[in-house]
Amino acid sequence: xxxxxxxxxxxxxxxxxxxxxxxxxxxxxxxxxxxxxxxxxxxxxxxxxxxxxxxxxxxxxxxxxxxxxxxxxxxxxxxxxxxxxxxxxxxxxxxxxxxxxxxxxxxxxxxxxxxxxxxxxxxxxxxxxxxxxxxxxxxxxxxxxxxxxxxxxxxxxxxxxxxxxxxxxxxxxxxxxxxxxxxxxxxxxxxxxxxxxxxxxxxxxxxxxxxxxxxxxxxxxxxxxx
Length: 226
Hints:
The chain is an alpha/beta fold. It has 8 helices and 9 strands. Helices cover 28% and strands 19% of the residues. The chain has an 8-stranded parallel barrel.
């Protein structure tokens, strides 16, 4: 788990506007080339495929209508991210591309249904030969990993942890940098003796402000020396 605090983590890969789309194989390849740990978002489709895509809907990144998780992968294969040749990748495609070269921070985009998604992700990651951790805004999802896959490093995401119920016994916390400094977050970090990450830092100024309060950051839009 030491990698979580060693190098800043690229949010959705090293992407750049509409030229190198977020959560694309191109953005992940850029991160691999620079030796940069990366964060990515995984969704569970209607056909039980795992794809790397952030939004609940397709519109922003593909220009098409539709709820992401209600799709099948065969339907998504025809879509492109912005006006590029990049597709919505399968999670297994990303794992194959990265191949353990850099660590992965995998966010589960849960719809509130606990079990099938987490089990599918666990099973895929069992065969992956590389460093990774999982995280979720859902404390029930984090708790599922505590009970069913305690060997997997798990993190709790929250804006400011004001309403967090304490479930899951996470190995790390990750909060919105705009909520820091934050007494509740500082107390949980100290009490549990676990790392705190800040998301999503988008400028050198934000990085300088938040750095004293956290163990690491998830960043985008600029480069932090590795």
